Amino acid sequence: MKRYIVIMLLIMAASLNANVFMDGEKLTFNIKYGIITAGQATLEAKTSVYQGNPVWYLSTNAKTHSFFDKIFRVRDRVESWWDKDSLLPYKFAKNLQEGKYRQHRVHIYNHARGRTTYQRWHFKNSRFDNSEMDMPMDSQDILSAFYWVRHQPLEVGKKMMINITADGRNMPTEVVVHRKEKVKSIFGEVECLVIEPKLKGEAVFKQTGDIFIWVTNDEYKIPVKLESKITFGSFSATLDSAQKVPLKLK
C-alpha cells in the first residue's frame, strides 16, 4: 500500500494562472478508509524563487491521525519547483514515511537537453545514488503534472496525454473526463467534472481499482473529492477546508 496518499494530491492539483489560482491557496482534505477518517492531507502553492527564477513552490503534506498511527503511520511530503513562465518543473522531491516503508527521491530537470538527474537515497548506506536519463522535453513531475492538467480546458469525453518523469522513469499518462455530476461540498452543491488518470505501467501507488476525481466545472477546477480502491479496501478524500480560493465557502 506504498505511496497511497501522494497520488491523491498529485491528481487534484490546479492551474497557477493568475485568473484561476490565488497565490497561497491551501486545500485540506479528510482521508477516509471505508467509514474511518484516518488522516488529513494538504495541498499548497505559493510564489517562490529557484536559482534566481520565479517559480510556484508546490507542496503536499499527508499524515494519519494519532489513533490510526498504531495501525499504519503516514508522514509524507512532496515538493515541486515549477517555472512560472514555461510551466515546467526545475526540481521534484518526494519524502515518504508509510508504516515501515521509507522513500526519499529527487529529480533535477534539464528541459533544454531532454535529460534529468535522478537521485535515490539509500537509507542503509546514508547516501544518494545518482543517475541520468533521457526524458521528453515537455515532461512534468507527478505534482506539477496535475497542476498542468487543471490548467487545460476539460470537456466530457475528452482525453489528454501528458508525460510524467519521476521515480527514475517516464510514465505516459492519459487523463479522461468521464461525466458531469453535482456534488455537495464546502462550497455548497456544485457541478463537477469526474476525471480519471490512467498511468501506463506501475502507478504511483498500487491501487486495485480505478481512481476518480471530482473537480468543479468552472474556470477554477477546484478538486472536492476523490475515490479509489487500494490494497485493503476503499480510499476517499474530501475537501474539508480551503484558503485563498475564489469560490465562497458555505
Write a concise keyword list for the protein shown above:
single chain; 3 helices; mainly beta; disordered N terminus; 250 residues; globular; 14-stranded antiparallel beta sheet
What this model shows, in words?
The protein is mainly beta and 250 residues long. It has one domain. It has helices at 6-11, 66-72, 144-151, and strands at 26-33, 36-50, 53-64, 75-83, 89-98, 101-110, 115-122, 127-134, 159-166, 169-185, 188-199, 212-216, 223-230, 233-243. It has a 14-stranded antiparallel β-sheet. The longest helix has 8 residues, at 144-151. The model is unreliable at 1-5, 7-18 and 201-208 (pLDDT under 50).
Condensed summary:
The protein is mainly beta and 250 residues long.
